[in-house]
Amino acid sequence: PWTEAEFTALLSDPLIFAVTTGEPLAGFALGRAVAGEAELLTLAVAPHMRRQGRARELLVAFEGRAVDAGATDAFLEVAADNSAAIALYTTAGWTERGLRKGYFQQQDGVRVDALVLGKALAPN
Prior knowledge:
- The chain is α+β, with helices and mostly antiparallel strands.
- It is 26% helix and 41% strand.
- The chain has helices at 4-11, 54-68, 83-91; strands spanning 16-21, 27-34, 37-45, 73-79, 95-105, 111-120.
- Strands 1-2-3-4-6-5 form a six-stranded mixed β-sheet.
- Helix 2 links the parallel strand 3 and strand 4 (73-79).
């Protein structure tokens, strides 16, 4: 989980961009684009708004904003045990590019591997 201070710092960085969905806010994604590459930092959908296609909307919006920022390639890290997120990304054309052992630490202290997924971005 990210702290309020971490979000505040991210949002003050000119390379960071946010996309949102829903009215009222149903979800958001934060990304960063630099030197032709974009990183999806986080994607979140409110629990009561899940299973309605909001995450897919956010992913498409992230990819569009990344292309607008000059990115031709994108990557993200996802917990290897997060099957729902992995299914979302792979059905959207993201493929596995690597593995980071013990990358994420859960609240109980257990470390979880991260899959590094990537996608070539098509110009708009």
